[in-house]
């Protein structure tokens, strides 16, 4: 059995309120974090932002045994939060939240990581416009997929690209058509990135998780091991 080297935490919206209550709520956050959460007007989105910050603390504490109130964060030059101060584990993490689900991935040894969660299958508007951002090989693959399965494949390609770019720290500033994923229907998911100066595919491990109901989550980890992902879904 491979050694687990990355941990994915999933928090459905249905469990968010009780999770927030038992972890300490807004009082656990620093002033800047609270301000960012309160900046959002829509209550559901405000709750997800708060839940995401608390989920990061929960995930980091589960890995280290540190108390939840130990954690403070700095913002990197590319806008990502990192634990401050750093621990002996050199932990890194990444967050994603969408309608219905919040996700957090944690890695050690200073390895870059990214996570993205989206509704799946993709909605009609996404099916119509997202493939224009895909690589030629990906668009060709979509033509071979039955119509009923195509929205799910489009969502999967999208979260893989997002997770990878979040791990790189570039966000959607990259030309997505230079990034190709293969192996979505079986075997190991592989990356071909023609926008990088050196081959990068073997340097990354990708996981694609279809949660129930109606979400797909992608995890991208630098120098990850196949089969090394642990997934924990929190409930009430």
Topology:
Elements: E1 6-12, H1 13-23, H2 31-38, H3 43-64, E2 72-75, E3 81-84, E4 92-98, E5 101-107, E6 113-119, H4 124-129, H5 136-143, H6 150-168, E7 179-182, E8 190-193, E9 204-211, E10 215-222, E11 229-233
Parallel strand pairs: 1-11
Antiparallel strand pairs: 1-5, 2-3, 4-5, 6-10, 7-8, 9-10
Helix pairs in contact: 1-3, 2-3
Give short descriptive properties of this protein.
236 residues, 4-stranded mixed β-sheet, 3-stranded antiparallel β-sheet, 31% helix, Ribosomal Protein L22, Chain A, 11 strands, alpha+beta
Structure, described:
The protein is of the alpha+beta class and 236 residues long. The chain has a single domain (6-233), classed as 4'-phosphopantetheinyl transferase domain (Ribosomal Protein L22, Chain A, Alpha-Beta Complex), CATH 3.90.470.20. Helix content is 31%, strand content 28%. The protein has six helices and eleven strands. The strands form four sheets. Strands 4-5-1-11 form a four-stranded mixed β-sheet. Strands 6-10-9 form a three-stranded antiparallel β-sheet, with helices on one face. Strand 7 (179-182) and strand 8 form a beta hairpin.
């Amino acid at each position: 059995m491979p050694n687990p080297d990355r941990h994915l935490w999933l928090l459905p919206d249905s469990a968010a309120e009780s999770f927030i209550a038992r972890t300490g709520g807004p009082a656990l956050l620093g002033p800047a974090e609270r301000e960012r959460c309160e900046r959002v007007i829509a209550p559901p989105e405000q709750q997800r932002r708060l839940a995401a910050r608390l989920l990061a603390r929960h995930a980091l504490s589960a890995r280290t045994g540190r108390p939840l109130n130990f954690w403070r964060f700095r913002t990197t030059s590319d806008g990502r939060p990192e634990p401050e101060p750093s621990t002996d584990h050199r932990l890194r993490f990444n967050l994603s939240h969408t309608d219905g689900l919040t996700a957090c991935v944690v890695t050690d040894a200073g390895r870059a990581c990214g996570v993205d969660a989206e509704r799946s299958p993709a909605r009609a508007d996404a099916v119509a416009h997202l493939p224009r951002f895909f690589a030629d090989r990906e668009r060709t693959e979509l033509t071979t997929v039955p119509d009923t399965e195509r929205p799910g494949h489009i969502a999967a390609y999208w979260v893989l690209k997002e997770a990878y770019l979040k791990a790189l720290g570039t966000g959607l500033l990259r030309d997505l058509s230079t990034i190709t994923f293969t192996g979505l229907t079986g075997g190991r998911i592989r990356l071909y990135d023609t926008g990088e100066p050196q081959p990068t595919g073997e340097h990354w491990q990708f996981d694609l998780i279809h949660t129930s109901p109606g979400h797909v989550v992608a995890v991208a980890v630098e120098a990850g091991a196949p089969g090394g992902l642990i997934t924990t879904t929190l409930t009430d």
